[in-house]
Amino acid sequence: MLSGGALRRGGLLREFTIAAFRVRDQGTVLGFLWTLLHPLLMLLILYALFQGQLGERIPNFRSYLLIGITHWSFFATATSKAVTSIVQRRELVSNFPFPRALLVLSDVGAVLISFVLELVVLLLFLVWDGVPLRWAALALPLVVAVEAVLVTGVGLALACAQVFVKDTERIWGILLRIGFFLVPIFYPVALLAEGPKRAIYLLNPLTQLMAASRELLLEGRVPAAAGIAWTVACAAGLLAGAFALFRRLEPRFAERL
Amino acid sequence: MIEARDLWKSFPVGSRAAVPLLQKLRALARREPPRAVEALRGVSFRAGRGERVGLVGTNGSGKTTLLRTVAGIYRPDRGTVHTTGRLATCLQLGIGLIHLLDVRQNVFLYGALMGLGREQVRRRYDAILDFSGLREFEHVEVRRLSSGMIQRLTFSIAMQVDADVLLLDEALAVGDQAFKNKCYDWFEHGLPRDRTVLFASHDLREIERFCPRTLWLERGAVAGWGDTAEVLRLYQARHGWALDAPALTA
After folding, report:
1. Shortest CA distance from B114: residue in chain A
2. What residues of A are in contact with residue B91 (Cβ under 8 Å)?
3. With the CA atoms of A68, A74, A76 and A81 taken in that order, what torsion angle do they form, in degrees rounded to the nearest 10?
């Protein structure tokens, strides 16, 4: 009985995810190429701007940039999609009984598929850029998994909030713009002076994930345990909290839409 | 089986609804009392396994709210609703499809919404296409279809459903007369007899033909419940029109 229900939910999640992925670039001339073009354009601009000053301080600056951009764009794209996961599916939510979390999971899942494809391109780019990939690079999927957990947690909370407070979407848009400068996408963490400000800065799990990814890919080292533990705890805690909130408020979604 | 006991449901309107902050403050300043629309007021009924129950009432009488509450889409303010087995809804035909995707992709998507697994849909895929009569549109985007075709497509998928409890809102017969007849035929002969059905409609002929018992809602409360012929007679008497009145053809 339970497994039958779980199976059906799995099937629905699969169909929702495929549909979300297919619809994404539907109707555009370049189609899926956009997913790859976007980070490369960002790379071009940031590289042109910063290659002189910052570029000299950072070895493999191009690869450094692209790793940051790829991680950031997964976080930003997936969470901003998740904000409207529920409110945009008003008709589905008011006419079919199913766990509403599937809508958020499938939207995040569709972006996750693009992210994984981007990472393949990223690895090719690294090889082209002359970065010697080491065994540590094999741990990259773990970083991706933790980021997916983090994004899902944030996404569930945002989707839920948007049902009750329509301003959430605008607020999140602003926060994302600020966030772009608060994670080390185009500058090194070392640029910040030692002190409490930097300590707080390093608490951001997304910063930790980017740093971990760079250590694995560019330096071939496994990141320090403390940072990993903190990041995993943040991501898991956030997901658990957001899911609990979601489950609590879910029965009121249909009437609020 | 469906068992509803003393269901109450209201929806806030005015200052308590989700309105912008300024509007809320203005309402507070004017000391407007919080208002709510009582959509269901103490509704109770029971439909046993295999029973087909009609649901009638004028616009705004609470039919859709009741269906959604039974489905678990709305949580009742008070009272309980209990269903056994798997439940599927068909409340508005055409909803649930993604218009940018083609017919084939939508068959799998909508099938999953109705609780069918990918393998089950694959096995019934040809039957669905044949019934809908849309074989030649298999790879056409749904937005290119006419609204009648979209309804036929949705109905054809929905009728493959395996659910024990089926909630229908005006969804029994759609499309042209030939397709309608196919729908009626499926409901009478195709749908297994052990399925419990709650069927809301304004077409009292359909209710009379398919549902032995009927629930009549009037402003959210039960106004009649029981034998269909009797309930429909009272319903029509209350509203001053008759089932056997000549149609608009004259």
Report:
1. A96
2. 94-95
3. 170
**In chain B, whose CA is at the least distance from the CA of A28?**
B100
Query: Count H helices, E strands: chain B?
Result: 8, 9
| Residue A165 backbone class (left: φ over 0; alpha: ψ -120 to 50; beta: rest) | beta
Cβ within 8 Å of residue A117, ≥6 positions away: A35, A36
Any A CB within 8 A of B236 CB: no
Beta strands (DSSP E) in chain B are: 2-13, 35-47, 52-56, 78-83, 87-90, 165-169, 196-200, 213-218, 221-227
ipTM of the complex: 0.87
**Closest residue of B to A12, CA-based?**
B112
Taking CA–CA distances from B77, the nearest residue in chain A reads A252
Domains, in order of start, for chain B: 1-84+196-250 (3.40.50.300), 86-163 (1.10.8)
Rounded CA gap, B69 and B202, in Å?
A: 20
Per-residue pLDDT of chain B (250 residues; tens, 9 = 90+): 999 999 999 998 765 556 667 777 777 787 777 778 899 999 999 999 999 999 999 999 999 999 999 999 999 999 999 999 999 998 888 889 999 999 999 999 999 999 888 999 999 999 999 999 999 999 999 999 998 899 899 989 988 888 899 999 986 777 788 888 888 888 889 899 999 999 999 999 999 999 999 999 999 999 999 999 999 999 999 887 665 554 444 3
Stated pTM of the model: 0.90
Backbone φ, ψ for residue A31 (5° rounding): 55, -130
CB contact under 8 A, A92 and B96: yes
3-state secondary structure (DSSP) of residue B72: coil
- Residue bearing tokens 């599916």: A89
- On chain B, the residues whose CB falls within 8 A of the CB of A251 are 74-75
Question: In this complex, is the C-beta atom of B48 within 8 Å of any C-beta atom belonging to chain A?
Answer: no
- The answer to whether A65 touches A122, Cβ cutoff 8 Å, is no
User: Across the interface, do B112 and A11 touch by the CB < 8 Å criterion?
Assistant: yes
Q: Would you call A23 an interface residue with chain B, using a CB distance cutoff of 8 Å?
A: yes
Interface test with A, best of B11, B21, B83, B95 (most A CBs within 10 A): B95
3-state secondary structure of A213: helix
**Residue of A8, A166, A251 lying closest to B115 (CB–CB):** A8
